[in-house]
Amino acid sequence: MIEAVFPLVGPLLVFALALPLAALATRLLLEALALWNAPAGLHTHQGLRYVLLVASSGAPLVWFISASLHQAESGREAEVCIATHAHEALCPEAALFALALVVCAGLFAAPRLLREQLVNRRSTSPAALRTAARLAAIIAARRALQPLRKRVYVCDDASAPIATVGIAVPRVVVRRSFADALDDDALAGALHHELEHVRDRDPFRYFVVWWALALNPLGRRFLDSELSAWLLAREVHCDREAVLEGAAASALAQALVTAARPGPVASACAQPALGATDASSLRLRVELLLAYADRAPHRCCRQPVLRFALIALLLAVALPHSVGTSALDVVHIASEQAVSIFTGP
User: Fold this and answer.
1) In angstroms, rounded to a whole number, what is the distance separating the alpha carbons of residues 148 and 132?
2) If you ran DSSP here, which 8-state letter would residue 123 be given?
3) pTM of the full structure
4) What are phi and psi of 311, to 5 degrees?
5) Distance of alpha carbon 235 from alpha carbon 289, whole angstroms
6) 217-249 burial, b for 16+ CB within 10 Å, e for fewer?
7) Hey, what long-range contacts does 250-253 have (CB within 8 A, 24 or more apart)?
8) In sequence order, what are the beta bridge partners of 172?
9) How do residues 64-121 score in pLDDT, each as one tens digit?
10) Using an 8 Å Cβ cutoff, are 97 and 254 in contact?
11) What percent of the chain has pLDDT over 70?
């Protein structure tokens, strides 16, 4: 029984204690950063915000996985293992603990990955085909939209009016009723906006941050507002880039308002989509777009934030091999002591 304690109770301590504390520390850090640089605007430090959101839960998790594998493969003389195993012998609890964490991480990611494959498929109804032909003509007539050729699908019952989906291969899915409600200029503006999501592989970027916070069901409430702020800044960025690439600001504002109207199907989670999530966000984005008619925007904030976030996770993987695994030993000992309290000597 003693050898099953750490693999069973250890992950519970990680998800119920370590990850929420990491989320709380990240929230305090982001609030301090916002107070320090409050006058700079919405877009300031958005790359750092994203990296911290991903690392807040992702880094501790991959650290624990790497540390446990390091103990299991190296036969390191961890005191907690020596108590029940021969000197220099393999400590199987560490390997089983790593396996439990990997399984949990995969289970958190599986629903969204499955939904990616099952929803928002191309419709083949006559009305959808006519709308698809119209979209193809709009793309063909505008050089800036050429990267979207063969990447735009029309779906009769899409979960969002227009959205960029596809973790591996980004594509734009347009709800037929939304496209039919817009004139060509507004529809072109919406496509320009989604092109920015395609260029920056936002479905993968959104998936990584969603997965990191999904791992932390108790702690993510500390970071929900920070995630919403980052999502809003990201959408504002795509609005600005769309105007710079040739979209009419007023036409894009029209598409935005149309997309924000309630549709027949609600989206299950935040994703790269044209529609605003609430009235205040919608008002801000429309006001910015209308202001662009008087004063052209300038480019900014194009940063490889996904690359930085993945580097942070890789660093977390490497750290246990150079600085030791003391925190893992603490979780190991705490797991066995917690069980002993309830089971007695």
Assistant:
1) 12
2) P
3) 0.84
4) -65, -40
5) 12
6) eebbebbeebbebbbbbbbbbbbbbbbbbebbb
7) 250/289, 250/290, 250/293, 251/183, 251/185, 251/186, 251/188, 251/189, 252/186, 252/189, 252/190, 252/192, 252/193, 252/289, 253/285, 253/286, 253/289, 253/290
8) 152, 164
9) 999 988 887 765 545 555 444 444 455 677 888 889 999 988 888 888 777 776 766 7
10) no
11) 83
For residue 122, with 0-12 CB atoms within 10 Å meaning exposed, 13-18 middle and 19 or more buried, which class applies? middle
- In the block, residue with structure tokens 């409430």: 221
**Cα–Cα distance, 115 to 72 (Å, whole number):** 35
Tens of pLDDT, residue by residue over 213-251, are 888 988 889 999 889 888 988 899 899 999 999 899 999
What tokens were used for 319?
């750290």
Query: Look-up: residue for tokens 């494959």?
Result: 117
The tokens describing 85, both together, are 């195993």
- Backbone angles phi and psi of 156, in degrees to 5: -65, -30
Place of tokens 């801000």: 284
